[in-house]
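Posting for a labmate who doesn't have an account.
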Amino acid sequence: MIALLLSGLAAFAAPTDEEVKGMVEAVYDRTLPMEAMCITRPELPAAFREVVVAGVRRGALGCSVVGVVTKDKLRKATSATAAIKASAWEELSAQERADHLKAYTEQVLLAFAQVQDDSSQARARGEGFEVTSTYIHRVKKSGYTALSEGRWRFDANGKVEEKSETPQRYWRTKLSVRPAKVTGTLTTDMVASTVNQRGAVVKRCFTRAWEKDPTLRGRVQLTWTVQEGKSANLGVIDNDSPPEELANCYAWRAVNQLEWPAEERGTVQFVFAVSRTDAEPPPLDD
């Protein structure tokens, strides 16, 4: 009996990230690297079953929702029906159901956007429900984000019947890198060229940080010495707002891996700057 109970519990255990990846690969009918996956595990109200949000990185859009895993199956995220516990749902008032769907909207449908504090509203409407929310998200033009208001109409069972999105404001975010000071036998051009060898890594550090916070801005200034063909004595001189995780990514995944001519010696101060400025709606056809 104990063995049967344990077996039953295992059957309803939340899938691992690898299992979620396998479900997404079945949808796309191809193998995907784990780095291409975006997976979150929201904490929804008690009337919902445990779910996993599965997404993939899509170019300039960044992480985008593919579906939601519940009952060990990848389903369309635009229907909360399979995630709802019917008996618990029946005990909720109409407004409580609307509030539950607001939580689902914020944590599942907008899992990879940045929902603005206290912006979401929910109400019963006819036989269904309506949820509105304001959020920042990436758009199809590289480097751009938008502040948009979304509106979702759910039927009585939690399925999205209608969705609209109205952009209200745009920003453009840029990453720039430059040597601030070099000494010894090093030159500014040599340092810039060498750091550029790890340009893809630097960009990846920035992109991952931007996915977590689309309002990212500020600069990181690192210092290091060049000796025996390696970067040594890495340190942060200035970090005026980007997260420490981003500074560490620049330092250890990019700078620490640089290879220098063995005869060169000196010190480097280098700036990694993220700017974020207001922008007009970007052209999306180029």
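Reply:
Got it, the structure tokens are right above this. The longest strand covers residues 160-182.
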